Amino acid sequence: MKQIITFISVFLISTSSLVAQSWLRVNQIGYLDDVKVAVWVSKTTEEIAKFDIVDQTSGTVIYSGNKVRQTGKQPAFQTSARLDFSDFKLPGTYIIKVNNIASVPFKIGNDIYAGAGEIPLKYMRQQRCGYNPFLKDSCHTHDGITVGDPEGKRDGLFFNTVGGWHDASDYLQYVTTSANAVYQMLFAYTQYPNSFGDKYDANGNEGANGIPDILDEAKWGLDWLVKMNPDKDTYFNQLADDRDHIGMTIPSEQKVDYGWGAGSYRPVYFCSPKPQGLRENKNRSTGLASTLGKYASSFALGSKVLEKYYPEFSKIIEQKAKDAYQKGMENPGVCQTACCVSPYFYEEDNWADDMTLAGAEIYSLTKSRDNLDQAVNYGRLEPVTPWMGADSARHYQWYPFVNLGQYHLAKQNANSRVSKEFIRNMRSGLPRAMRL
User: Fold this and answer.
1) What is the pLDDT of residues 52-94, one digit of tens each?
2) Are strands 267-270 and 145-147 parallel, antiparallel or unpaired?
3) What percent of the chain has pLDDT over 70?
4) How would you class 188 by CB atoms within 10 Å of its CB: exposed for 0-12, middle for 13-18, buried for 19 or more?
5) Is residue 228 within 8 Å of 236, Cβ to Cβ?
C-alpha cells in the first residue's frame, strides 16, 4: 500500500521558490512515517550538499540534513538532486529550505490522507465536459460527427456524445482513459465505501443528493460511455483530435474549427481494428479488445455498484458489459487513439490485461465457469505487466499499468489453483517494479 501511495504522490508534487532559477518540490499531501524525499531542480549548474527543515509556525530550523543524492541534468534542468529526510519523524507542518529557496508547506503525520479522496474528485469535476460545475457553464455542446469508420459506411453522422471529462490540459476525450477512471473510482468505493462523503449532487454542484460523491462522478463517466456505445454494433474511441492543440483557453470559449465551423461540431472516432488517422499520421491499431475490455469492466462493475441508486440504468449497462466483452473476444488486439496533424497518440501495446479484468468482472455477474476460464486464459497471456522490470516505455505503452484482473483472480477462493497461480504472478511482478 505504501508503494502505491508513493506512486500516486508523484502526481501531487508542486514547486515553490523565491527565485526563478531553482525550485524545491515536495509532496503537498505530506509524508507518513516512511520514506521522505524532496527534489531539487535548477536551471543553473549549482549543486547542493545540505538542506534545512523549518517549522512553519515558529520559523525555527529544527532539522538539518546532508543526505543529498545528485541526479544530474534533466530534460528541463541543468542540475537536480534528491533530498532524503526519512529519519525526521516529528509530526507537524514544515518548509524545506536550501539557501534562499523554500518549498511550499507540507505535513508529516499519520493523518495526512484524511479527506484526501476529495482531491481527485474535485479535479474530475473541474474536467467535466458538457455542463461544467466549476465554471457554471457548458462547453462542446455540438459533439459529435463520426469519422474513422473502419468499414467506411457511417462517417459524417451526428451522434450525441456530449459529456464525460476533458483529458488533462487539453479538451480531447478518450474512452481509454475515461473508462479506466470510471473503473478505478468504482473499485475504490467497493474497497472503502465509508471513505467518501456526499457534498455534491449528480451535476457536480454543491449540495448532498444522498449518493456518495465518488459514485456521482463515476455515473457521470458511465453516462458518457453509454453515449459512446449507443448500440451493440457501435463503439466510439475518442472525441476530437490533436487539432485541438491551438492555444490555452477555458473550455466554454474554445473555438477550434474541425471543418464544421469554429466552436461547432467535433469529430467522434469509431473504434478501429486497423491503423487509423485522417491525414498522413496513423496509429498502429490491431484489434478492439483493449478498448472494449475497458468498456466491459467499467459497465460490469458499474451495474453492480449503482444498482441500489439506478436500477434501470444498472440493467442497461450490465447488458452493455456483456456485449462489449463478447465483441472484444471476437477482435483481439489493441485499439489505439487516433492522431491527425502530428504522430501523437496513446501507443497502448497490450490488451490481455483489459480482457483479464473484463472477464473477471463478467464472471462476477454471471458466475459462469466459462467466463472464469476465459479470464484465467487472458491472464496467462500476460502473467506480469510488461512495464514491471522495463527501464522505459513509449507513450501509454502498457496503460493502465495496473492489472486488477490479476487481483480479482488471485481472490478466487473457490478455486485454490487459480488463486495460487495469480498470487504467484503478482509476487513475481512486484519485486521487478521495486528494483527499478
Assistant:
1) 999 999 999 999 999 999 999 998 999 999 999 999 999 999 9
2) parallel
3) 95
4) middle
5) yes
Q: Which domains does the chain have, with CATH numbers?
A: 2-108 (2.60.40.10), 118-434 (1.50.10.10)
Query: Rounded to whole angstroms, how far apart are CA atoms 292 and 421?
Result: 26
**pLDDT of 240-256, one tens digit each?**
999 998 878 899 898 99
Residue 222 contacts residue 189 (beta carbons within 8 Å)? no
Per-residue confidence (pLDDT) for residue 13, from 0 to 100: 41
